[in-house]
Specification:
single chain; about 180 residues; alpha+beta; Muramoyl-pentapeptide Carboxypeptidase, domain 2; 5-stranded mixed beta sheet; 5 strands; elongated; binds zinc ion
């Protein structure tokens, strides 16, 4: 499971705790749990100075605390983590041969690549396929993850109580 310190900008201790989007971290934790491993965070939150130093985009989501670069060095790791990342709701992916950028910035769904080659081609194609199956993939999160609907339980309980009431006080009164 990820800790907020995993997302610190290298030049600012405690910046993960201070600036990382909690929803972003929660999504990554759900993905790691579903995939069975938690890829190392190469880069999480970035101060503007650190972002400039590593050549990040001027308006990088890393500076909003809503982006991470996950170390994904092997094909088998990629095949395990990619469906989980889509399943938990990531819709923006930067594809490299050794890492995956994911973010939940409020921008439209997008997949882009860093460089080329056979491995990147494979990953790029696979992510696009997975995004096409995103609703189906929600199933891989399992019962526990999908059970976050307390209102559904309340409605079912009320319906059940109404049925009991009807049976005992309305129907029985007729006989
Ligand atoms: Zn990134």
């Amino acid at each position: 499971m990820y800790q907020l310190t995993d997302f610190d900008s290298p030049d600012a201790q405690g910046s993960g705790e201070r600036y990382m989007d909690r929803n972003h971290v929660a999504m990554l934790n759900r993905a790691g749990k579903a995939a069975g491993f938690y890829p190392k965070i190469n880069s999480g939150y970035r101060t503007p100075a650190h972002n400039a130093k590593v050549g990040g985009a001027e308006s990088s989501c890393h500076m909003e605390g809503k982006a991470s670069d996950l170390s994904v060095r092997t094909r088998s790791d990629f095949d395990r983590i990619a469906p989980a990342l889509v399943a938990v709701g990531f819709r923006r992916f930067g594809v490299a041969s050794t890492f995956l950028h994911v973010d939940n910035c409020s921008r439209s769904e997008a997949v882009w690549t860093y460089g080329g080659g056979a491995e990147i081609d494979y990953r790029n194609k696979r992510i696009r396929e997975l995004l096409g199956q995103q609703w189906y993939l929600a199933d891989m999160l399992g019962e526990e993850e999908r059970g976050d609907r307390p209102w559904l339980r309340v409605i079912l309980l009320v319906l059940f109580a109404a049925m009991l009431y009807y049976y005992f006080f309305v129907l029985k009164g007729r006989f």
